[in-house]
Amino acid sequence: MTAAPHSEDDNPLRGPPELLGEFGEFGGRYVAETLMPAVEELAREWPKAWADYAFVDEYRAILRDYVGRPTPLTEARRLPAAIGGGRIFLKREDLNHTGAHKINNCIGQVLLARRLGKTRIIAETGAGQHGVATATACAYFGMPCTVYMGAEDVSRQALNVVRMRLLGAEVRPVTSGSATLKDAINAALRDWVASVADTHYVIGSVMGPDPYPLMVRELQRVIGDEARAQILDRIGRLPDAAVACVGGGSNAMGLFAAFVPDKEVRLFGVEATGEGLQGRHAATMAKGRIGVFHGMRSLVLQTDDGQLLEAHSISAGLDYPGIGPEHAHLHATGRARYLGISDREALAATELLARTEGIIPALETAHAIAALPQVIAELGPEAVVIVNVSGRGDKDMHTVMTHLDPATLALIAEAERERKAARAAHHGATGSHPGEEALIVDGHELRADGKEGA
Ligand SMILES: *Cc1c(COP(=O)(O)O)cnc(C)c1O
Questions:
Q1: Ligand 1 centroid to 325 CA: how many Å?
Q2: Is 185:294 a contact under the CB 8 Å cutoff?
Q3: For this structure, is 124 an active site residue?
Q4: Is the pLDDT score of 29 beyond 70?
Q5: For the segment 102-146, what is each residue's pLDDT rounded down to a tens digit?
Q6: Judging by beta carbons within 10 Å of its beta carbon (0-12, 13-18, 19+), is residue 6 exposed, middle or buried?
Q7: Average pLDDT, stretch 197-213?
Q8: Which terminus of the chain has a smaller tally of CB atoms within 10 A, N or C?
């Protein structure tokens, strides 16, 4: 693994302005007076930790032995023929423990919290993926963990609530406002105001008050550092482009970070246009305006009078009304381009990657895959492109299922009818209650009372 702070050149204490958390007109620290000391402590202590060999070595060792890094760079074999050519290299963050990139950040932040003498972790979560990654890191380190989650999301994402609780975290449903992510963020910030002496707040993307956007990017840059070394090793040159989906922007920043200084490498972020820009969407770059949200100044989806708008994407992880300040800066300066992909296009790309490469991507990731034809059309069929496979698709199967094509749905319905008929015949023979609901798993009938049937 190559990583940031082991040479004089990339020591963040002496780096260029963006390494110090200044992203043009974006970023900053917009927090309550009571939180300022905690944020200042982080801004002071984070660069010291990141320049400390012992800290970085421990972080890397955990990524290697627990998370499973380095992740492979897989060259797509059959995908290029379906998207107009190119040599496409897939950076396999889906193969990390917990199935996505978020764990890289959570391990680093909980390690930092321990270094700072904090004894408790809080986090907010939208769909629950960041909550699960944080709960995982807390279980690893034996730290108590409280996760704030909108009550609406608690019921929509029940499986992640089960995961978090299984991992030992306390999940606190938030019922104020629209009972979704922004309300969970507010609740987490309120907790932090009261608990700042012993509590660290783990933010899940390159968002929030300085130094979070900088810190989370550095904790994710392992993606780009590995990918850069792997592509040089494989083909002896840098790629023509790096592509990643953008929710808050952490998997994209992690990939981009290694290539920002290489002007010949084009950077493409892909945001969710949901049902279309006229309908519900999460297209912060296309439709957002400058505002202050979540402790930072960045582009935000808002009404004319500054009310935060609710975002929509079929992928829970892109369903966020803001974007990290460094992305806003890369956008404003033209260093990175941002493309939009709809729910429908993302679903189609999920199927495309599954069928051509045998990899079922997360719906977030599918947005990046869906943008590849446009990237290849622009750069030509000889282009070498690295695309970040930010996560695996298992978590999205219930969503995919409800959007499957009619033939697949008919097949499932037919099997269900046959199963019910068989069960009715069986119950008729044994005399048990025919109305009793049971689930057949691997040929075993599981009943609500926990007993296994025949
Ligand atoms: C959360 C998530 C994202 C979006 O978050 P970023 O901070 O923009 O990376 C993308 N992909 C997957 C698989 C996720 O879980």
A1: 16
A2: yes
A3: yes
A4: yes
A5: 999 999 999 999 999 999 999 999 989 999 999 999 999 999 999
A6: middle
A7: 96
A8: C
What residues pair up with 27 in beta bridges, in sequence order? 22, 297
**pLDDT of 8 higher than 60:** no
d(CA 146, CA 158): 16
Q: Is 155 a catalytic residue?
A: no
Which of the four pLDDT bands, split at 50, 70 and 90, describes residue 15? very low
Please tell me the residue having the least CA distance from ligand 1 atom 14.
317
Rounded distance from Cα 162 to ligand 1 centre (Å): 20
Indicate the average pLDDT of the chain.
90
Cα dihedral angle (16, 20, 21, 24), rounded to 10 degrees?
A: -40
Taking the centre of ligand 1 as the mean of its atom positions, its distance from the CA of residue 389, in whole angstroms, is 10
Please enumerate in sequence order all residues whose Cβ is within 8 A of that of 441, keeping only pairs 6 or more positions apart, or say none.
none
Tell me if 245 CB under 6 Å of ligand 1: yes
390 classed as catalytic: yes
Measured in Å, residue 205 CA sits from the centre of ligand 1 at: 8
Residue 438 structure tokens? 């049971």
Atom of ligand 1 nearest to the CA of 251: 9
- Rounded to two decimals, the pTM is 0.89
Q: Which atom of ligand 1 lies at the shortest distance from residue 252's CA?
A: 9
- For ligand 1, say whether the CB of 251 is within 6 Å of any of its atoms: yes
pLDDT tens sequence across 434-452? 555 555 555 555 555 545 4
From CA 137, how far away is CA 144, in angstroms rounded?
Answer: 10
Query: Which residue reads 């978590």 in tokens?
Result: 395
Which residue has the CA at smallest separation from atom 1 of ligand 1? 317
295 touches 262 (CB < 8 A): no
